[in-house]
Structures are given as structure tokens and as C-alpha cells.
TrEMBL record:
Keywords: Cell membrane, Membrane, Transmembrane, Transmembrane helix. This is LTA synthase family protein. It comes from Ciceribacter ferrooxidans. CDD domains: LTA_synthase. GO terms for cellular component: plasma membrane. PANTHER family: LIPOTEICHOIC ACID SYNTHASE, PHOSPHOGLYCEROL TRANSFERASE I.
């Protein structure tokens, strides 16, 4: 008897079909479980990142669940990145070993940065990692136990990541080809759509619905509202500086130019020494603290006004950029560092100007020349030499930094060896924080601060001793200048308030350990003003200069030296007649208070400020249309567009 094939084969096929369906259901179930785990991982990563960056678990939870915050959007975006990265790597959950450290470690660095500098971490900060490494010995000396703990955690984290990577490669479940394809087909387009939302200059209804609100004019609020990951992503394009609306050759040609007067050629042009004193500030401003004796009698006696610093506690190079160029950080993307990002070729500066008048132009700083990219920047600015730690004599130290006295003496020695008129620019180092106890063998300034803790009292005593020695160095320099035959102009100013931490809060000077970035004018002056002395050995102190932006120093220096210039005493002088300071958040008028939020889109801009901005953009990023008319000494240096 021949059996019917259908009778014996059909049951086998049915069993196979049922098994296949079961396998598919099982596969779908496992795929759903894996995606669910990735979603949970994304939630935990965002929560951890925000907790670290904010230093507050309650605020981190609120960011995740509040209906007016983009926490769910951040989770969704990170979930898509996890899924797509898993597809590329081929195994489930392996993306966590890449993306979680990339989220958590920068958040930790951001939290530490905010403790000292008030600002969160920006993408551009990655450009000066060498500076951070160079300052590690100082930070370790100031907080050794914390440094050891952090170092131990970092080593343990690296060991764990290496172990988990090899463990994952062997044990984590591999993804099937359909699973990989599905994740990529869904994840990549959605991630691409998100990237299109990152142009904060363009309105996006979808971004609004997701409660993602870029606040580039107020980065502190930007990070608080959008969370660390989204705000950091918004700042990635900051190096792409767009031209101001209306900029072009016609706009430059339309800028009126006064008729500059040539300096009277007496054959005796004054020497100029311009010193930016690290963290120089008046600690007697601390109302609930008494210091005895006065740590800065020379500076107080010869005060010309104050510098309205755009920074706090750090970012020295940004203040230096303004003082040397006459340009303003207010016209650049928030969080940017011109020395690192934008100075890539010849840029007008006081060095270029004075060299065009036959001066010798030298720069001095008793630290390594790569710090803040100074070696390249000074060359771009037109200095003919830069004396740094590498090529200066070994100097006496105060703590681990070169003393102001030794540095000042070196500047004086260089001046005595220079026959021609000179423009010297120097940056001191002794006042750099942190202000650890026992930096000095003896602190000569007594601190009476009933509300200060012992640690804060010691920190303030160290800082005040440094101020006293900076003041004594200035007196030494002025006494030397008085004996010289040629007139000597001395300009000294502080770059920013010192990072004194709890001294500010315990004394009641500020509500936080760091300064406010946007506040009423009286608060901003309280938290951003540093001392300024503009003095001539023949003409004496230049009084009542006001509370001015560092950019306006170039106007006063050129004017006091007896010169006229189309930009420095022309355009910049015209701006200065109307404004004392140009801050990112407000224009400080000479007579009518401050103009807040002047830089926001849609605000009508004062034509003189608009022209100032055009000239800066033209010389830094544009085609140099203005060089011949406004920077004649710069025109011959330009072989192509400024960049």
C-alpha cells in the first residue's frame, strides 16, 4: 500500500509553522524587551546626567517629569541614539558603553566648572584641555583628598569600561539583520529630524511643542531649562559665526570716517607698559569684612576708574582679547573664546598700531606660551616677540607661580635694554587661584570677618596678601618710571574677580559663589568691576574714566600716547562717548543707565554700535573691506581675507 504523502507531511509542516510563529512571537517579545530596556537606560542616563550637572536630584527629577521642560524629548533622542548605535555595533546594549560615559563625564566636568567659573561646559572648552591638565597640580594642592577620590573613581571607571566592553562582546545578545535594519530605518531619520531643530536661529513649531527653547543669550538658563545634553548640543555650532545682518562692502563704505590728526612729531613718543593683573580686585569691597592695613594703597591713590569685566573667576583670555584689539566679546557667540577659535591670521591690535609708529612691541607672561594659544595669538596681533616661561629667566615664586615683583623687574629690565619707544603688554600670574592656605610664609593683611569660616578666612588672607604684593610691584614700577627721561605710560587692570568661593556667600557680598551673568546694572558692577589705573610719568593719573569695558582701554592708551586713529580714537572713541560698557546683556550708557537685551533679535541697534560690530566682523571673519580706511597699518599685513 502506498501511503498518501499529504497524510504524513502535513502534520510536520503544521508543527514547523507553529514553531516558526512561536519563534517570531518570541523574537518580537525579546525585541520589545530590549527596546524597553533601552528606554529605561535612556531615562536613567538623562536623570544621572542632570543630577550631576545640577547637583540636585529634585531638580533633575523635575526636569524629567515637568510638562514645561523637554526632559521626555531628551530621553527620546537618547533612546534613538542607543538603538541606532546598537545596530551599528551589532549587539544589544553595547551602545551604553559608549554613550553613557559621553553623557556623564562631561556633565561632571560641567558641574566642576560651574563651581569656579559660573558657566557650564561648552563644546569650545574641549579646545583647551591642555590648560586644564596644566592646572591640575594647583587644584590637587588645594583639595588633595577630593583629587585622590576623583582620580580613584576615574581609574575604576576606566577599568570597568574595558572589562564591560570585552564582556559585552562575548555575552551581550547579537541583533538579527532585520532588527538592525529596523532600528536604522526608524532611528536615523528621526535623529536627522532632531538635528534639523538645532539651528536655534530658525523658528521651529516642533521644537516649541517639545518645550525645547534655545536661550543662547542666557546660557545659565539655557542649561537649566533644556538640560545639559540638549544645551550642550545647541552650543556645538557656536564656532560658526554668521555675518551681522546688512554686512557687506556697501555697509562698510557707508560708515562715516572722521579726519584723523597726526601726532605732533616731537621726536619723543611715550613708552607704554600695559599690565593685566591676574584676578586683581579690591577685597575691601567685602562689606562685612575688615582688612588691615589697606592691601592696595597705591592702586587706590592712583585709581582711574574700573574695568567692567565680561568674565568672572577665569576666562582671562577673553578680557585680554578686548583690551588688545578694541573689539568686543559681546559680538561673538556666547561661550566662545576668540583666542582659541577665531584668531587664525592677522588681527588688528595695539601692537600692530604702535609698531606702525616705529615702536618695539613685546608681550610678557611668566607661564608656558601655548597657554590660551598665546604664542600664535600674539604673532597674529603683531607682537614681534613673546617672552614666556620658556625663554624668560627663572623667577622667584610665590606659591607655585612667578611673583609679581620678579615679573615686574623683568619687564623693567627689558625696557632699560630697549632704545626705541616701546609698547609692552604683560599678564601677571601671582594672583591666580585657588588661594590655598600657607602659600605665603607670612600673611601681612589681618582679616576680621565674623561671618567667615576658618577656611574662607585663610583663603581671603592668601588672596589679600597677593593683592598687597601686586600693589607694591606697581609702586616699584611707577617709582622707576618717574626717573626715566622719556615719558612712560603705565596701565594696569584686573581681568576679573577672583574665584574666592564661599568668601562671597559667607560675607554676604553675593548670593552665590559665582557672579551673575545678567542682572540690574548695580549688581553687575558689584560682581564684575575690577581696578583700573591709567598713569603717565609726565601727566599723572587719568581720573574719572568710569566703569569701562576692556575694549575701551585701547582708546585711552592711543589717546594718552598722543595719537589719533580712524578706529581706536575715531569709531571706538565715538562709541565710548555714548557708552561706558558693552556687555552681552546690556549697553551701559554714560548718562541714561543701561539698555537691557540690546542684542536680542528684532531689537533696533544704535547705528554707532552697528558700525562697530560691522568693523569687528569685517576684520576678524570678513573680507577686510575696512582695512585701508580704518586700519591702515593692518592693510599691508593682509594677504587675503581675515580669518
Amino acid at each position: 500500500m502506498v501511503s498518501d504523502p499529504a497524510i504524513s507531511i502535513t502534520p510536520d509542516r503544521a508543527v514547523a509553522s507553529v514553531a516558526a510563529k512561536a519563534n517570531r512571537r518570541n523574537g518580537y517579545a525579546w525585541a520589545a524587551v530590549r527596546l524597553g530596556n533601552l528606554l529605561l537606560l535612556a531615562v536613567l542616563t538623562v536623570l544621572t546626567t542632570e543630577w550631576i550637572a545640577r547637583g540636585n536630584l529634585h531638580e533633575a527629577l523635575r526636569f524629567l517629569i515637568a510638562t514645561d521642560r523637554p526632559g521626555p524629548a531628551a530621553v527620546g533622542i537618547l533612546f534613538l541614539l542607543f538603538a541606532a548605535t546598537d545596530a551599528l555595533l551589532g549587539r544589544a546594549y553595547q551602545s551604553a558603553l559608549v554613550l553613557v560615559p559621553l553623557a556623564v563625564i562631561p556633565a561632571f566636568i560641567s558641574a566642576q566648572k560651574q563651581l569656579f567659573l559660573s558657566d557650564p561646559l561648552y563644546p569650545s572648552d574641549m579646545l583647551f584641555g591642555r590648560q586644564i591638565l596644566q592646572l591640575l597640580p594647583v587644584m590637587v594642592a588645594a583639595r588633595p583628598y577630593l583629587a585622590v577620590a576623583i582620580g580613584g573613581c576615574l581609574v575604576a571607571t576606566l577599568v570597568a569600561l574595558v572589562y564591560l566592553w570585552f564582556f559585552a562582546w562575548r555575552r551581550f545578545p547579537s541583533l538579527s539583520r532585520p532588527a538592525k535594519l529596523f532600528r536604522l530605518l526608524v532611528g536615523v531619520p528621526l535623529i536627522g529630524s532632531f538635528l534639523s531643530l538645532m539651528d536655534y536661529a530658525e523658528y521651529s513649531p516642533l521644537r516649541d511643542r517639545l518645550n525645547i527653547i534655545p536661550m543662547m543669550w542666557d546660557q545659565r538658563e539655557n542649561y537649566l531649562h533644556n538640560g545639559f545634553l540638549l544645551a550642550f548640543a545647541f552650543n556645538l555650532p557656536m564656532a560658526n559665526v554668521t555675518a551681522p545682518e546688512g554686512y557687506g562692502v556697501q555697509a562698510i563704505e557707508a560708515i562715516p570716517q572722521g579726519a584723523p590728526l597726526a601726532a605732533a612729531d616731537t621726536g619723543e613718543h611715550p613708552d607704554v607698559i600695559m599690565l593685566m593683573s591676574e584676578s586683581l580686585w579690591d577685597p575691601t569691597r567685602l562689606g562685612n569684612v575688615r582688612l588691615s592695613p589697606d592691601p592696595m594703597p597705591t592702586i587706590r591713590k592712583n585709581a582711574s576708574g574700573n574695568i567692567f569685566s565680561p568674565e568672572f573667576g577665569g576666562m582671562t583670555a577673553n578680557v585680554e582679547f578686548e583690551a588688545l584689539t578694541g573689539f568686543s566679546n559681546a559680538f561673538l557667540p556666547y561661550g566662545s573664546i576668540p583666542y582659541q577659535q577665531y584668531v587664525r591670521g592677522p588681527v588688528p591690535s595695539l601692537a600692530t598700531f604702535f609698531r606702525s609708529k616705529g615702536y618695539v612691541a613685546k608681550s610678557f607672561h611668566p607661564f608656558q606660551s601655548w597657554f590660551w594659544n598665546r604664542a600664535n595669538v600674539y604673532e597674529s596681533f603683531g607682537f614681534e616677540s613673546f617672552l614666556s616661561e620658556e625663554n624668560m629667566p627663572v623667577m622667584d615664586k610665590r606659591g607655585i607661580f612667578a611673583s609679581d615683583e620678579a615679573f615686574t623687574k623683568e619687564v623693567m629690565r627689558a625696557a632699560d635694554r630697549t632704545q626705541k619707544p616701546f609698547f609692552f603688554f604683560g599678564v601677571t600670574l601671582q594672583g591666580h587661584g585657588p588661594y590655598e592656605p600657607n602659600r605665603y610664609a607670612k600673611n601681612t593683611i589681618a582679616i576680621d570677618g565674623p561671618t567667615l569660616s576658618p577656611a574662607s578666612t585663610q583663603s581671603l588672607a592668601t588672596y589679600a596678601q597677593g593683592v598687597r604684593e601686586a600693589d607694591q610691584s606697581l609702586k616699584m614700577l611707577m617709582d622707576w618710571a618717574k626717573k626715566r627721561r622719556r615719558e612712560t605710560i603705565i596701565v594696569i587692570f584686573g581681568d576679573h574677580l577672583p574665584p574666592l568661593g564661599t568668601v562671597y556667600t559667607e560675607s554676604g557680598y553675593m548670593p552665590d559663589q559665582v557672579a551673575t551673568r545678567s542682572a540690574p546694572l548695580d549688581v553687575m558692577k558689584r560682581e564684575h568691576e575690577t581696578p583700573l589705573v591709567v598713569w603717565s610719568s609726565k601727566k599723572g593719573v587719568q581720573k574719572d574714566l568710569g566703569s569701562i569695558s576692556p575694549a575701551f582701554l585701547s582708546y585711552h592708551v592711543v589717546k594718552l600716547a598722543g595719537y589719533e586713529h580712524p578706529f581706536y580714537t575715531g569709531i571706538l572713541g565715538a562709541v565710548h562717548e555714548r557708552y561706558e560698557a558693552i556687555d552681552r546683556h546690556q549697553l551701559v550708557q554714560r548718562t541714561a543707565g543701561a539698555v537691557p537685551d540690546w542684542s536680542k533679535a528684532g531689537k533696533k541697534l544704535d547705528p554707532i554700535v552697528r558700525d562697530y560690530r560691522y568693523l569687528q566682523h569685517d576684520m576678524m571673519f570678513g573680507d577686510g573691506f575696512s582695512a585701508e580706511r580704518f586700519f591702515p597699518e593692518q592693510a599691508e599685513r593682509l594677504s587675503g581675507p581675515a580669518s
